[in-house]
Amino acid sequence: MSSNNNPSNQSSYYSSSTSYSSYSSTSNGQTTSYTEHHRTNPQGTTVTRESREPGQAPVQERIHVPASGSSAIEGTSGADRNRIEDITEEEAAKRYEERIEDEYAKREGGA
Prior knowledge:
Oligomer: single chain
Low-confidence stretches: none
Number of strands: 6
Structural class: alpha+beta
Shape: elongated
């Protein structure tokens, strides 16, 4: 009997995960909704966020963090949001938190 050590006969496996969350807030009868989708696979992690405010176009943002560790942000609203920039995952999270705080301040009349 002979054994077959041919690598092409071997199976390969990988894992992936996905999560989705959404919430909305209402102020003065106007509802704004937010969604966030995370997908992780061997190529890295992609986070897609969208906010929808009454009477305005949706604002979308996509952050991809490759398995190598650098990240890029893509946006679809405003001149600055259409650029891709290499940043760390921590910086991406910090920027997101700042934007969310600004949104809450606007709704509470603070900005």
